[in-house]
Amino acid sequence: MVRELTHFIGGKRTPGTSGLFADVYDPNTGTVQAQVPLAGRAETEAAIADAEEAQRGWADWNPQRRARVLLKFLQLVESERDSLARLLSAEHGKTVADAHGDLQRGLDVVEFAAGIPHLLKGEFTDSAGTGIDVHSLRAPLGVVAGITPFNFPAMIPLWKAAPAIACGNSFVLKPSERDPSVPLRLAELFVEAGLPPGVLNVVNGGKEAVDTLLDDPRVQALGFVGSTPIAAHVYATAAARGKRAQCFGGAKNHMIVMPDADLDQAVDALIGAGYGSAGERCMAISVAVPVGEETADALVARLKERIAELRIGRSDDPDADFGPLVSRDALDRVRRYVDIGVTEGAELVVDGRDFTLPGHEGGFFAGASLFDRVSPRMRIYREEIFGPVLCVVRAADYEEALRLPSEHPYGNGVALFTRDGDTARDFTRRVNTGMVGINVPIPVPVAYHTFGGWKRSGFGDLNQHGPDSVRFYTRTKTVTSRWPSGVKEGASFTIPTMG
Ligand code: NAD
């Protein structure tokens, strides 16, 4: 039976009224399991109006009282962690174990956000001039919005919404139309935890909903995560309309393997970070850069062996290493890129194009592919594939390996595998990329640090979660005050100075 999903506005599930719907698939079978409404302008504006009204009262709650809602939310999620992970896995196609990780990484940021009162304290200078004190405070922005991708349907909505509401804003979330059920349930749990209706609204939809959020003057700031062309468009449009924006885009994350690296560790890392979640992670490793021919030959031989042992299965199969891709389009795109790589002259060591899971011929499964001798001029190197395809680019020496991620248009994450501290230190200082891992393949920073890529992977000055999220979701007001008992100087016609 095909379920009909809703929006979540004013604290309750609200049916769509535009008459437009998108199909939500079961990626294991390729069949439609639900339909999600696509909000038009009127529905999106209704959600914004509701959020605007709720924000005034919410901002008057003291910060610790707001934080208590987040703590209660964490308790409520605990009691249905497994069903949330299963729901997420069933729409996205990642394994249930991986879906647990998606949820946990989001909850980490909710825990961080419950401590945000500490970061809202502002600054104070006693006696900045005679009888004059100065303080700055952090005020919420008002209504803010988040537009999120399909590949982390729990983590990224929580990364955006939790710090925003902890700072006293109301939030309109526009999640991916491909796996909207978990964001809807999370919003419901926030209200069950005591969040006043309207502080967190979920509007399902596509371009029209996003255009409305961009156009509406009541929306003060937008956080976007998704592909680079749309991230760049949202950033430019938001900026042109005077809105604050942070927009994160695609990636091509490299992993450099030095000759002195622990090869077992490097191979494990590449198999997990290259093929986990079928490569549908913005921090997936999609390029391996072995340094020297000997390292490269050994690495490619070991990868080939390990790929043969990979278990691809249904997303709810506990023995599967990874499941299907999210959609038919994603599967077609991955196969097309493997074709392109062959045409460009890269050496296809493992071909995953024809993989099918018996009994699931309609599912969106792609096998793992491995290319060797990829050159930086090739499209399979320059463009994001977002699937289980790993490219090996052989580098002659460390300097050439360092140049590759540094000169690549994307700059999300990068990893270096080595036993040498000097090389590691030099690399972390010189590489032109936002997040760096040393012997860590997916260097997603912990919740109290910040997450963000450079170059075509991130537009805007401030990163997600950590202290930057408080800076993004508040603005500073600075107050200079003098009381009547202060020195009376008479009228002054010059710019005030402090002494
Ligand atoms: P996407 O760009 O297709 O969609 C992202 C969001 O934008 C969705 O909510 C979608 O509905 C909306 N959207 C789609 N078309 C639009 C349009 N024309 N105008 C306005 N909004 C539109 O991305 P996706 O396929 O859902 O996610 C995968 C991409 O996200 C990959 O490129 C991946 O690297 C990237 N990603 C980046 C990060 C990061 O932190 N840098 C994290 C996760 C995913």
Features:
499 residues, alpha/beta, Aldehyde Dehydrogenase, Chain A, domain 1, Aldehyde Dehydrogenase, Chain A, domain 2, six-stranded mixed beta sheet, 15 helices, globular, binds nicotinamide-adenine-dinucleotide
Describe what this molecule looks like in 3D:
The protein is of the alpha/beta class and 499 residues long. The protein has 2 domains: 3-249 and 457-479, Aldehyde Dehydrogenase, Chain A, domain 1 (3-Layer(aba) Sandwich); 253-438, 3-Layer(aba) Sandwich (Aldehyde Dehydrogenase, Chain A, domain 2), CATH 3.40.309.10. Helices cover 38% and strands 22% of the residues. It contains 15 helices and 23 strands. It has helices at 41-60, 63-79, 81-92, 96-114, 155-166, 181-192, 207-215, 228-240, 263-275, 293-308, 328-344, 379-382, 398-407, 421-430, 467-472; strands spanning 3-4, 7-9, 12-14, 21-26, 31-37, 123-129, 132-140, 143-147, 170-174, 200-202, 219-225, 244-248, 253-257, 285-290, 347-350, 369-372, 389-392, 410-411, 413-417, 435-438, 454-455, 458-459, 474-482. It has a 7-stranded mixed beta sheet with strand order 15-16-17-14-13-19-20, sandwiched between helices. A hairpin with a 2-residue loop joins strand 6 (123-129) and strand 7. Helix 3 crosses helix 4 (96-114). The longest helix has 20 residues, at 41-60. The chain is globular, with a radius of gyration of 25 Å. 52% of the residues are buried. It binds nicotinamide-adenine-dinucleotide. Nicotinamide-adenine-dinucleotide is lined by residues 147-152, 174, 176-177, 206-207, 210, 225-227, 230, 248-251, 282, 384, 386, 412, 453, 457.
